[in-house]
Design brief:
111 residues, two-stranded antiparallel ribbon, globular, DNA-binding
DNA sequence: TGGGTGACCATAG
DNA sequence: ACTATGGCCACCC
């Protein structure tokens, strides 16, 4: 049975993020039509660890490209490690060339 | 049922 | 330019 919850929708979008790309909470929220309720996306991520299949929450950062949720991973460095493993460059807890690796669901998915 | 919460974003001073 | 505050809306108890 599928849950037509907002959370499930967020997970679906996050799982669609291609490897080597990242996006922001606000982009997902806006894509889902939540408007500015980007907080719900972050909150959904918090529960994403409990949801299967696993959601690449490390590919989701805030508007500044900063790893705001790194503190909520299994380890505070887990997020950075995962992003670096995908070819990203992290500096001062912020993704370098964030704009280049930015993946906007509104554009890529052409809503 | 109602209130509080949350890994944010935008605007105003 | 930086700092502070409000709004937002789904989920949990």
């Amino acid at each position: 049975m599928e849950k037509h919850s907002f959370f499930n929708n967020v997970y679906d979008v996050v799982r669609l993020i291609p490897k080597g790309k990242v996006t922001s909470y606000g982009a997902i929220a806006h894509y889902l039509g939540s408007g500015r309720s980007a907080r719900l996306v972050g909150w959904a991520m918090n529960a994403s660890f409990n949801i299967l299949p696993l959601v690449p929450a490390h590919r989701v950062v805030n508007r500044n490209g900063m790893l705001s949720g790194k503190n909520h991973f299994e380890s505070p460095t887990e997020m950075q490690e995962l992003l670096e493993a995908e070819g990203h460059k992290i500096e001062d807890d912020t993704i370098v060339n964030f704009k280049k690796v930015y993946w906007d669901p509104r554009v890529e998915l052409e809503m």
